[in-house]
Write a structure and sequence with these properties.
Layout lengths: L6 E11 L2 E12 L2 E6 L6 H8 L8 E3 L2 E3 L5 E3 L11 H4 L5 H9 L3 H8 L10 H14 L6 E5 L9 H9 L6 E6 L2 H7 L2 E6 L2 E7 H5 L2 H11 L2
Helix pairs in contact: 3-4
Length: 228
């Protein structure tokens, strides 16, 4: 990684698709050594924001100290698909001792145990609860130099592995900005330093996670109203 720690200021970001406004006047700052969770129900604009930040969408603009950027630069995005699903986890990992890498990433807990059991299973035949851990493992082997990491709902279909996934993501935040999209309020609580709450394109909260979770009425209201 480079010596300069990543940071970004997003100001007055609005996104339109035709006559439909997807994101309305979004403002927030990102600084290294933090995990930012973008929280909201499906269709709120979380994925659109990620595409903007990674230059996968031409709408909107990013500003760093007043300068408009095309994207944030060097980043890694959690893969949502696998190009060669008939290959196994072992075949996808480019290490002399691939399981040592898995154990280093996941520790000696249940995830490592289950990955070892399915180390040579084709990816398209893995149990559903291992799909996200495998995607995360693939992503991280190519992300060692990335200062920005993006994860799009890494906990989906992995309730039994949710805590382990959160711990892996937290272990990666030194000198990095990490952005995690989720609609799962309990998962957000496990790893967020900051919460950006978006409800159908409208920013409702941005600030330290402790402030968000120390406001029970805010949490309860959003769970009841939007199912997050």
């Amino acid at each position: 990684m480079t010596n300069a720690l990543p940071h970004n200021r997003i100001t007055n970001l609005s996104v339109w698709s035709g006559s439909k406004q997807i994101i309305n006047d979004l403002n927030f700052e990102l600084h290294a050594n933090n995990i930012y969770v973008v929280l909201g129900p499906g269709g709120s604009g979380k994925s659109v924001l990620t595409k903007l930040l990674t230059n996968q969408n031409t709408l909107g603009s990013l500003r760093v100290e007043g300068n408009i950027l095309n994207s944030i630069g060097d980043y890694a995005h959690m893969r949502q698909d696998v190009k060669e699903p008939a290959l196994s986890l072992k075949d996808h990992l480019k290490f002399n001792d691939p399981f040592s890498y898995v154990r280093k990433l996941w520790g000696n807990g249940e995830v490592s145990k289950h990955l070892k059991e399915h180390f040579e299973t084709p990816v398209n035949k893995l149990p559903a609860e291992l799909v996200k851990p495998v995607q995360l493992t693939f992503s991280m082997q190519n992300a060692s130099e990335s200062q920005w990491l993006f994860f799009d709902e890494p906990e989906v279909n992995s309730d039994s592995n949710m805590t382990a996934i959160a711990e892996v993501i937290k272990s990666l935040k030194k000198d990095r900005v990490i952005i995690v999209n989720t609609h799962h309020i309990a998962f957000a609580r496990q790893l967020a330093d900051y919460i950006l709450l978006i409800i159908y394109g409208q920013p409702k909260f941005f600030g330290p996670a402790k402030e968000f979770y120390n406001s029970p009425e805010t949490v309860i209201q959003n769970v009841l109203n939007y199912g997050i």
